[in-house]
Amino acid sequence: MKPIQVGLLGIGTVGSGTFHVLQRNQQEIQGRAGRGIEITMVADLDVERAMRIVGPDVQVVNDARAVIANPEIDIVVELIGGYGIAKALVLEAIAAGKHVVTANKALLAVHGTEIFAAASAKGVMVAFEAAVAGGIPIIKALREGLTANRIQWIAGIINGTTNFILSEMRDKGLDFDVALKEAQALGYAEADPTFDIEGVDAAHKITLMSAIAFGIPVQFDKAYVEGITKLGAADIKYAEQLGYRIKLLGIAKRRLPDATHRADGIELRVHPTLVPAKRLIANVEGAMNAVMAHGDAVGTTLYYGKGAGSEPTASAVIADLVDITRLHTADAAQRVPPLAFQPGAMRNTPVLPMGEVFTSYYLRLRVADEAGVLARVTGLLAEAGINIDAVLQREADEVSGEAATQTDVIILTHDCMEAKMDEALARMQALPTVLQPITRIRKEELA
Ligand code: HSE
Fold this sequence. Notes:
This protein is α/β, with parallel strands linked by helices. It has three domains: 4-138 and 310-345, 3-Layer(aba) Sandwich (Rossmann fold); 139-306, Dihydrodipicolinate Reductase, domain 2 (2-Layer Sandwich); 355-443, ACT domain (Alpha-Beta Plaits, 2-Layer Sandwich), CATH 3.30.70.260. The chain is 36% helix and 24% strand. It has helices at 13-24, 26-33, 47-54, 64-69, 85-95, 105-122, 138-145, 160-172, 176-185, 194-197, 200-214, 233-241, 310-327, 373-383, 418-429; strands spanning 4-9, 37-43, 59-61, 75-78, 99-102, 126-127, 151-157, 224-225, 244-255, 265-276, 288-295, 299-306, 358-368, 388-393, 406-413, 416-417, 439-443. Strands 7, 8, 9, 10, 11, 12, 13, 14, 15, 16 and 17 form an eleven-stranded mixed beta sheet that branches. Helix 2 packs parallel to helix 13, helix 5 packs parallel to helix 6 (105-122) and helix 6 packs parallel to helix 11. Bound molecules: L-homoserine.
C-alpha cells in the first residue's frame, strides 16, 4: 500500500527529530502502523536549512498553505507554535480535510474547543500527544490506559525549564535570578523565558489534561497561574528542613460536594508547591517531567520522562502519526475522541475560583523577635479556623544580613479554603510586628 503522506509546517528542533526518527525506524513503524509513513513535503521560512535537513527527495516550500493545498498530503503536522498563524493554518488544514498532528499546547489550551469542533464536523482527527510532557505518553495514558477510572486528580511537573531552575536553586543554594541565568547559559531556558517561569506553559498543559481527565471543555482562562519568580533560596532551604521539596506543579483535582464543599467542581491551578521529599515526584530533578494521576480503580500512577527535546518530542509526534494511519479509514464514531469523552458526554462541571480551592500551606513571616508575636500570628489563624500542622522558628543569627532583632517564623497548616487563608494573611500582614510581605506557598501531600 502507498505510504501515508505527511506534510510538516515548520522544521525546527521537533520537526527535524521527527524526520530523522521516521527515517531511522521506518521498518518498525511501518510494521506497527500497517503502512509506511513518509514526510513528503515541508514548509519552512528557511528553505535552505530545511533542504539540508530533509535532502533532495522531499519537497521544501516557504509557504505553509502550499502544503495544505497539496491533495497528496493526508496529515499536516503543525510545529510552528503560538496562537497566531498556527491557528489559521490548523483550521485551514482541517477545512481541507487533512488530519492534524500538533505539539502546540498554547493553541489547544486556548482555542481547543473551536478546533476540536471543526475537526469533528469535518470528520478528521486532531492529535496532540507532543503538546504535553514531550516524550511521556501521558495523553494516551489518561485517554485510553485509564479509561476505566473516575480520575480524582492529576499533579505534574510539566515544565522542564522551571524544574531545572528549582533543582539548581536547591542543589547550589542559588537565588532565582542566578539560577535562571545559568539555565539560559546552558540552553535550558529561552532568551525570553516568560511563559515557562510564569507558569503559563504548565497551565496550558494541565488545562489539556483536565479536559481529558474530567470530560470538561479546555478552559485555560479559568486556570490559576503562578510561576516561580518570587521564590527565594530561603524557602527552599526551610522546606527541606521540614521534609519537603518545592516543585512547580500543574494540578487538576475533582472536588465532590460534602459538608465542607457546597458544590462539585474542578480545581485547575499551577503554582510552586511543597511536596513531601519522600514522594517519587519530589525527586524528579533537572529538566525532567513527571505526571501523577490518581484514579478510583487504579490508585496512584506515575509517568516520568523527557518533557522536551528533539527526539523525545518526535517520539510523541510519530505515535500520533501511527494512530492516525491506523484509524483514518475507520468510521469517525469508532475513533478515540480527542478529549477522551464523546462530544455528547462532555460535562459542564465548573472550574472553581481560587478562593474555593482546598489545600494546605507553608507560610514564612519575617517578624520582630519580641514576646507575644508568635501568639498573635497563630491566634489569627485560629480565629480563621485554620489548623496548624508545624511551626519552625529560625534563630535570629541564622537570618542572613539582619540584626538579631528579627526572626523567620515558618508555619505549616492543615487543609483549609484559600479564601479563609487570604483573610487570615491580610490580618497577619497588618500586624506591626510582621516586617516583610508574608510568603505563602501551597502544599500537597499527594498521598
Ligand atoms: N518549554 C517547555 C519546558 C518545553 O521547559 O518544559 C516545551 O513545552
